[in-house]
Each structure stands twice: as C-alpha cells, then as structure tokens.
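P.,

For your records, the input lines for the assembly:
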Amino acid sequence: MKIVRELADSAGDFTAAVGGVTLFLGRLLGQIPAALLRPSLIVAQVHNTGALSLVIIMTCALFVGAVLGLLGYDTLLRFGSEDALGTVGALGLVKELGPVVTALLYAGRAGTALASELGLMRATDQLTAIEMMAVDPMRRVVAPRFIGGVIAMPLLTVVFIAIGIFGVQLVGVQNFGVDSASFWSQMRASVELNDIAEGVIKGCVFGLACNLIAVYEGYNAIPTAEGVGRATTRTVVISAVLTLMLDYMITAVML
Amino acid sequence: MVSAVSTDVSSAQPAAASESLIEIRDVHYSVGGRSIFSGLNLSIPRGRITALMGPSGTGKTTLLRLVTGQIKPTRGEILFDGINVSTLKTRELYALRRRMGMLFQNGALLTDMSVFENVAFPLREHTDLPECLIRNIVLTKLQAVGLRGAAQLMPAELSGGMNRRVALARTMATDPEVLIYDEPFTGLDPISMGMIVRLVRHMNAALGITSIVVSHDVHELSGLSDTSYIIAGGKVAAAGKLNELKGHQSEIVNQFLNGLPDGPVPFHYPAADYQQQLLADSE
Ligand SMILES: Nc1ncnc2c1ncn2[C@@H]1O[C@H](COP(=O)(O)OP(=O)(O)O)[C@@H](O)[C@H]1O
Ligand SMILES: [Mg+2]
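Structure tokens returned:
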C-alpha cells in the first residue's frame, strides 16, 4: 500500500517536473529570436562553455580512442581481419562513443558550471535585479547561454570523434602495426553518410537536452547555498540519464 | 524614453495632481497558508523620503515586491501614479519599472561584469546611445557615488558599502522617479553607513527623487525620513514623524522603537511548557 502511494507520488512529481520543463522551454523558445539578434552575447557563451570543456574532452577522447584500439585489435585479430580496425573505431566513435561521452563530460563540466552560475545569480538577487531594470533575464541571461551551449556541444562532439580516431590509429597502426593505408581506406569505404548523420543527430539532441536541463535547474534553483548545490547535482544526474535514454531511442529509430 | 513610457501607461488617469506617488489600499497577501498582510493601507508622498520599518519577518521585503509587481496581492490594490500595478501585463509592467529603481540589500551587481559595465548595463539594454555618451553617463554616475576610480574593478573586489554605492549608480543611470532601498544600512561599518545616508539624502534633495527606505535602524532613519510607517501584524501599526512616534501608546511600536527584548514580539519562540518538556525528556 505504502509502495503504491510512493509510486503515485513520484509519478505525480515526475509529471509536474515535465510540465515545468515544458513551460520553461516555451518561455525560452519565445526569447530565442530576440537573443539571436545579439550574436556577441552568444559567441561569448560558446567560447565560455567550449573553452571550459575542450581540454577535458580532448584528453578523454584520446584515451577512449586508445582503449577502442586495444579492444578492437584484440577482437579483430581473432577473425584475422585487423585491417578493419579503422572501420570499427570510426563507427564506434561516430555513432555512439563520440556523442554520448561528450554529452556526459559536457554535463559534468559545462552543465554544472551553467547551473551553478544561474543558481548563484538567483540566490544573490542578480536575476531579480535584472528584472527590476525592466530587462527579461530569460532573454538577456538564459537564452544566450542556452544557444551558446547548443552550438558548442556538436562542435565538441566533432573534436572528440577526430581525436578519438587519432587514438585508435595511434594504438592500431603505430603500436600493433596495422597497415596504415588499409586502416584509412577501409574506414573511408565503409563509413556511410547515414552513420555520420546518426552522430550529428545525437550530438544536436544531446546538446539541446543537456543545456535545457542545466539552465532549467539553475534558473529555478532554490535561492540558498544548499539549493544551488542541489541544482548542480541534479543537472549531472538528469543529464546523464536523459542522454542514455535518448541514445537508446535514436539508435533504435536509426537502425 | 521615460516620458514616452509614462504617457503610454498612465493615460488612464491624469496623475500629476495627486500628492502621493504610491497608494496601497486594503492589501491582503498570504504565502504558504500564512497571512503576511491583512488590510494594509499606506501612501508614499511624492518627492519625500518615506521609511518603512518593522521587526524582521514582518513583510517589508514582501511589500516592496508587491509595489514593484514581482508578486500580486490576494486582495486590494496598489497604485503607482494612478496605475494599478497588479493588473498590468508583463510589457506594461516592464515599462513601469523603468520609472523605478530598486536597491537590493547586497547590491546584486552582475558578478561577471566590471563596475563600469554594471552601471552601463541598463543603458546598453534600453538605449542605442553611442559608446562615448554611455562612457560619460557612467563616469558621471560613478563620480556621484565617489567610485569613479573603481570603474575597472570587478564586484568581488569591492567592500559591502562600495557594492551598494555601485548598485545605486547603476540604478541612477536611467534616471528613475522612485528609489527603493531594501535595508541599505545592514551590515555596514559606520563610515559606509554615513556615506549611504548622505547619498540617499542627496538623491532626494538634489534630484527630487521619491525615496522609500526599508530599515530597522531607528537612529539613522530619525534624521533621514520625512514620514515613517511601522508595520507589524500585517497592518500599519503607526505612521508619522519618527520623533513623534517615540511616545506612541501601542505596545508593539514602543517595543520596536525602544528596542525592548520582550513584549508583544515575545523573547521566546512559541514552545511547549518548559517544566513539562524537561520532565518528559528525562523519562
Ligand atoms: N516565498 C516565500 N515562501 C514562504 N514564505 C515566505 C516567502 N517569502 C516570504 N515569506 C515569509 O514572509 C515573511 C515576510 O518576509 P519578508 O518580507 O522577507 O520580511 P522582512 O523583509 O520584513 O524581514 C517571512 O516570515 C517569510 O518567512
Ligand atoms: Mg527583508
């Protein structure tokens, strides 16, 4: 009985949260045309979020690529087809690892920074002060950050994929002596436009989701130190779960 | 820019004749099932300094949020220059807010911008003035609060008093008709406090700006305000010149103005019987 009530409660909470995010998204989308008229604000935010995550994205991409090289080589060797390492690495990175790991890292680095920045602005009355100066904080503060993040994330995904492939190549070609020419030519021959489209779609969808969660949690943070901390944690947790759920759906649809 | 806004919104009533700029009529407000105001009436005279006083948690900040349209009363009306604030649409409300300036307790400067950019912020948002003109206005406003030399500092590098003075300069950048100060003296050293008092008086005397000062600093306010309202129990408990209120017959007003530790606002938070609780706990 108690479990039923708890389930009903959390289902209610979930519905309320989804409703809240939807309303917020509506308000945000309404301000996006006006925000697009001030590209300098957006460029500053692309720089902010991008530069913030670039080093961590590049480092992780190199290691993910290298691991993919090790495991891929080991598996392919059993079938005597190590020349296909380029294909395996590229497909794995473009379709799955690139977008997903970038999104997870982005949520942890830039998403939390975004949420805590907005939460702190809420807690220190900065957002109210902006409203009192007859400026809509949705247009001036939230929308440029959201758009900047949505632009930055696909770019970071591309960087991740490029460096990741370099990592595969480093292990496969330099270390295990896979033939360099067949590594690249097989990759070029078998990676299709569809595969790249899947990566691009995932990068864009995850970018929308992660940035929406970050600005929503930050903007609606309870205006205390504890509330800002909670908003930051929730940003990471919800972004990660949502990314993996969306990943499954997109993969299933595009198969 | 401001005048265009005022003709637009206030067309409902020719307001210039009225003595008071803000009228609060029978306002009721409750939050989370708790009643904060029950039948609040007061008026803020044009071109004067009005003090709003009262014990902590009595709803002074809430009142300011009502006046600036951040929240709506459950009953009653709030008139700003004849305009009913609580019925305005967002766009009209923003137009009205350009006639008001509000100072937050901690200054609420935008932390990712320098002092100069903070003061320039409302100008950049609302006007297309050329850069050189913006520069001149910003430097003039900073000079008025004595912080022209701090223009390139970031908010984190400022003391509490400097923070509030920059916030005042930022508010002044768009030449508001009303300045609302929420607890401007709290947590300041005597020198900074003196500076803020001087600025409040100057803005009022030199520029004729209607000022509302929320504070519980009886001493500072007695030399500053023209009229004072003491708010307690969801209503105005006393109104008038602060010096004349000292001998007020109401107990709560007496307790507040003379700083008595016990009275209608009890020293003890409501609790169960002391003896019984001690005995019960030891069992
Ligand atoms: N959003 C809110 N939710 C719940 N209670 C609130 C809220 N805002 C204000 N209050 C309550 O209203 C009362 C008045 O608050 P406030 O206006 O900040 O008092 P003051 O500024 O006079 O110290 C306080 O007791 C506070 O707990
Ligand atoms: Mg207060």
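Two observations worth noting. Chain A has a mean pLDDT of 93. Residues B 60-61, 183 surround magnesium ion (ligand 2) (CB under 6 Å).

Regards
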